[in-house]
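== Folding task for one protein ==

=== Format: two labelled lines per protein ===

==== Paired sequence and structure tokens ====
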Amino acid sequence: MRVPALSQRWIRKARAALWLIDDQRGATAIEYTLIVALIVMAVVLLITQIGDFVSTPFQTVAAKL
């Protein structure tokens, strides 16, 4: 028995959808991107804090000159 062309298209679309749902590569890339974003935020915060800590002694010395 032959399957109608319309049904074959739906079967191909369903297989493609299932393949996309099963594919984990995109999820892994998003997870790594979020981890890198959190690390960058922590580094920026650390540099900001260190910058404030270091600039105070330089300002004190510059004021006494």
Notes: The chain has a mean pLDDT of 82. Residues 5-64 form one domain. The first helix runs from residue 5 to 22.
